[in-house]
């Protein structure tokens, strides 16, 4: 028996999956910046992560149509900018020269990516919920 999920409330990504994705992305970005021989493997890892997130997003939006009308909030924009800064300027400015620095940078950037991914998704889910006063999910005006 299949249940109709179109009227149910979507849930944000779990902490475990967000931190795992952050770990993959953070370590990959760190090694791409410092290890020249890691380019092909790193590009493949990032491609798999991007494709997996894209497919998961399409499947979730098909399952929960209310996500198409999600309003972006200030928190969504803030966390999105946080992720963009991690992917760009942080990688250019913070260069790890020793193994200890490489491990610290990998862990710090991975944790930050994981938190950023989780919070962006939470803000998106919050933007998809109907306002408290709307019983049927529609707002006039």
In words, what does this structure look like?
- This protein has 141 residues and is mostly helical.
- Helix content is 67%, strand content 0%.
- The chain is built from five helices and no strands.
- It has helices spanning 15-34, 39-63, 74-87, 89-93, 99-128.
- Helix 1 runs antiparallel to helix 2, helix 1 packs across helix 5 and helix 3 (74-87) runs antiparallel to helix 5 (99-128).
- The termini are far apart.
- The mean pLDDT is 83.
What are the SSEs and their pairings?
Blueprint: H1 15-34, H2 39-63, H3 74-87, H4 89-93, H5 99-128
Helix pairs in contact: 1-2, 1-5, 3-5
List keywords for this structure.
elongated, mainly alpha, 141 residues, 5 helices
Contiguous helical run count: 5
How far from one another are the termini? 39 Å
Our estimate of the beta-strand percent is under 5%
CA-based gyration radius: 18 Å
Main sheet attributes: strand count, strand direction, barrel closure: none
The secondary structure category is mainly alpha
| DSSP summary, beta strand count | 0
- Helical proportion, percent range: 55-70%
Summarize the helix and strand pattern as letters.
Answer: HHHHH
Return residue spans where pLDDT drops below 50 for at least 5 consecutive residues.
none
Overall pLDDT score: 83
Q: Judging from the principal axes of the Cα atoms, what is the shape?
A: elongated
In short:
The chain is mainly α and 141 residues long. 67% of the residues lie in helices and 0% in strands.
